[in-house]
């Protein structure tokens, strides 16, 4: 059953010149010799149709083989009143070829979409890291512009999570002084960072 497709441009085999309906009936009964005759008669037609749609010779050969296997497996479905064997084979070949092209296009579209998502994700991650780094550098620069007591109070409160009272105890400074210095320090930080309220 897995015969190579004859890709010559000559006339079809003898079975093609006669009535392929009888040959098809024998193929439907599992007659391998009848299938051989059918193959010889239809393979050039099938390949010609497939290659016009798929446009890639290697893929066209593969699709044409699949079509010929389909004709073997579906031979019992053939109905002479619906059209000739050649017309039926041509229809099967065209459908298979179109399916292959659509499948290949869908795969390409999926690959492009995935690549775009990965690129966007990578870009977003890098952009976020750069933005975070720039903000951190700006915060450090602005912190350097505070007085020593303001910087220490803000650092203990916001980076270590201490309360006003704990900051006052850690610095050995009265609580009202710490609150005032922190308020002033935060105002200067906000101004330095360009935060508007």
UniProtKB/TrEMBL annotation:
InterPro entries: RNA_pol_sigma-70-like, RNA_pol_sigma-70_dom, RNA_pol_sigma70_r2, RNA_pol_sigma70_r4_t2, RNA_pol_sigma_r2, RNA_pol_sigma_r3/r4-like, WH-like_DNA-bd_sf
One Pfam family, short name: Sigma70_r4_2
Location of the RNA polymerase sigma factor 70 region 4 type domain: 137-189
Ranges of residues in domain RNA polymerase sigma-70 region: 38-105
Coiled-coil segments: none
Keywords linked to the UniProt accession: Sigma factor, Transcription, Transcription regulation
Family to which the UniProt record says this protein belongs: Belongs to the sigma-70 factor family. ECF subfamily.
Name of the molecule in the record: ECF RNA polymerase sigma factor SigK
Source organism (scientific name): Streptomyces omiyaensis
Taxonomic lineage of the native organism: Bacteria, Bacillati, Actinomycetota, Actinomycetes, Kitasatosporales
């Amino acid at each position: 059953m897995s015969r190579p497709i004859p890709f010559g441009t000559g006339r079809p085999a003898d079975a093609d010149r006669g009535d392929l309906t009888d040959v098809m009936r024998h193929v439907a009964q599992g007659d391998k010799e009848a299938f051989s005759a059918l193959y010889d008669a239809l393979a050039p037609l099938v390949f010609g149709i497939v290659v016009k749609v798929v446009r890639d010779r290697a893929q066209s050969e593969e699709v044409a083989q699949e079509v010929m296997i389909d004709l073997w497996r579906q031979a019992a479905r053939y109905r002479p009143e619906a059209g000739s064997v050649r017309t039926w084979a041509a229809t099967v070949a065209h459908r298979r070829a179109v399916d292959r092209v659509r499948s290949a296009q869908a795969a390409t579209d999926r690959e492009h979409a995935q690549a775009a998502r990965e690129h966007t994700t990578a870009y977003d991650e890098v952009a976020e890291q750069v933005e975070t780094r720039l903000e951190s550098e700006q915060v450090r620069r602005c912190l350097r512009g505070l007085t020593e007591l303001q910087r220490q109070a803000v650092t203990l409160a916001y980076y270590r999570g201490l309360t006003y009272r704990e900051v006052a105890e850690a610095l050995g400074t009265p609580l009202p002084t710490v609150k005032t210095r922190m308020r002033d320090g935060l105002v200067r930080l906000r101004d330095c960072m360009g935060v508007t309220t």
